Each structure stands twice: as C-alpha cells, then as structure tokens.
Amino acid sequence: MKINDVTLADLALALSAERKRQKLSREEVAAVCGVSMSFIRDAESSTENCSLSKLAKLINGLGLSLEVSGLLVPQLDSPKSKQGFRHADFGVPDPQLVARGIESNANSEPS
C-alpha cells in the first residue's frame, strides 16, 4: 500500500483489520506498542491526526513494517560526501518526483 493523504483512511482500516485478525483488543495492542488506548482508537479511525512515530510503534507492534523509499539517507561515516549517501526508494514513480528528481539529487551536494 502506498501511503499518501488519500490512502491514510485505508491505512486506518488495515491497522484495525490486522488487530482484529490477530484477535487483539485495543488495550492489548496499546500495552505491547507502548501507546495509549485512545491512540489506537484514533489510529484506527483518523490516522491523519496521529504522529508518525506512534504509528510506527503500532505498525511494528502488530508485526508489520513501514518502508520508506526514494530517500537519500546520509551515512554516518561520511555525512557530506556523495559517497556518504545511499539511495532509498519512496515508491513514487520518477515522473511524479519533484522537478529536480532523484537523478539530479544524487549527482549534487546535499543542501
């Protein structure tokens, strides 16, 4: 599932369905994930109001993963060099990328 502002409702439904598939109560999931029951309720109804860090806790707590792709991530050994970046993929097709695009970013110094 590609996540954007339109698909956040789909994410909420998917998280609720996964919790129910695992036969877990909101209370049980909240305890395992280290978040409140009200957060679980909010995440299952309106994820657009939830913090990404808490959503990541919920996703991981349910045994799922969230993958970010298309990101140039600085590596600790050489944070300013071109070699110090690795390519990650956001799952966004190249034509949808901002005008500079991934290719031009990979060949220039980070700002």
Write the layout of secondary structure elements.
Layout: H1 8-21, H2 26-33, H3 37-45, H4 52-61, E1 72-74, E2 85-87, H5 101-106
Antiparallel strand pairs: 1-2
Helix pairs in contact: 2-3, 2-4
Gross geometry: globular
Q: Within the CATH hierarchy, at the fold level, what is the topology of the largest domain?
A: 434 Repressor (Amino-terminal Domain)
- Label the structural class: mainly alpha
Distance between the termini: 30 Å
Write the element-wise H/E pattern from the N-terminal end onward. HHHHEEH
The CATH homologous superfamily of the largest domain? lambda repressor-like DNA-binding domains
Report the sheet with the most strands, covering strand number, pairing sense and barrel closure: 2 strands, antiparallel
Annotation field: number of helices: 5
Overall mean confidence score, pLDDT: 75
The CATH class of the largest domain is identified as Mainly Alpha
Strand order in space, largest sheet: 1-2
Number of domain modules: 2
Per CATH, which architecture of the largest domain? Orthogonal Bundle
Which ranges are low-confidence, i.e. pLDDT below 50, for 5 or more consecutive residues?
A: 78-86, 99-111
- Helical content stands at 40-55%
